[in-house]
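We modelled the chain as a single entity of 137 amino acids. Its sequence is:
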Amino acid sequence: MQSSSDPKNRGKNDPPGEQNAALSEAAAVALNQQISKAVVKGLSHFGAGAVVESLVYILELEHSVDLHSLANNLDALRAALQKMFGSATYVIEERIDESLAKQLGIDRGGKSLEELVEILKARIDEFIPTEKKVVRN
């Protein structure tokens, strides 16, 4: 039997409970990757490099959150954006929302970041790389 510690084989020969854990881990990684990608893309309209570095600094220093764990920390993201952009935060958030909607291939239609994240969660299998997906018998 092949080891599940090998990423190529993770989940294939694991008991069902461990398969769900592997899927959950892959889903969480994919979810956070898509959200951080949307944040970076949204910020790119305002001078990506330095702006993203400043956001990461504020998130890590003041909220103990890194850019790749935003899915469950949207309030920390908003607080960091508020600190950086003040009353213009809504403009930045709209760009992030538009970027995430585009990644999902949907029309934003006034949906909030939370609503878009829920749609992403429901469709997360589409964003998990094939080698990370669990093969079910």
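As a brief sanity check on the tokenised model: The chain has a mean pLDDT of 82. The helical segments are 16-43, 48-63, 74-85, 89-104, 113-122.
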